[in-house]
Amino acid sequence: MTWLYPVLDALKDGYIIRRYVGLLLRIAAWGTIAGGVLLEIVTLKVAFADQLPAEVTIAGVAGAVIVAFMVWAIAQAYLYHAREIAVMQKSTFVVIPIFSSLTRLMGEHVAIWCLACGLMGAVVSVVAGNFARVLTGRLEYMPGLSWFTSSSALGGIGTLMLSIGLACSLLLIAYLWAELLLVAADAAHQLGRLVAAAQSSQGHTAATALPEPIERHCPSCSAPLSDPLPRFCERCGAAL
Known about the structure:
The protein is mainly α. It has one domain. It contains six helices and no strands. Helix 4 packs antiparallel against helix 5.
């Protein structure tokens, strides 16, 4: 009847959660690499399409290189956090550290994507010039790329600076939320320790309280005796 107890103990300990979250992140990393190969094929296919000017082909090849670096960077981020979650130490809180790591991963993922789009848009704008919109219109698998693309080299450089600022801002926001989660967990842990210490101190004080004084009586007349003990009873005069 208790066959589920070991599973629940493992869930409470966090081992199963950390193990399978790390496994899912590794699967996502290799899936990202596989998807990146498909993106490379599509990008190069678009770059070498018929009736396209040479500058568009060159911009497409440069964009394929940027896509390769983007995919590899995102896959490394997944593998890094998979390892980080796998080696997490046992603590009072199981999910909060994992969620903090996933929050940082999400920020890194979006920041890499924004940086790659900005860099690709700048390269396409500088190399392809007026044909930049033609190329980005065919690369529909990268949402937001056309927003980073301009018809002039100066506009491309400006959008690159904007993408760098956006990527840094998103990364800082994600790291801030991740640290706030850890700070909240640590504050709750410290508060629990203070409450336990206060309760232990109160119990120790009650256990070490002074005993109540014992009332003494005269052995002859049973009259109560004052403290300190006198030599003779005040009522009957018997020697004590």
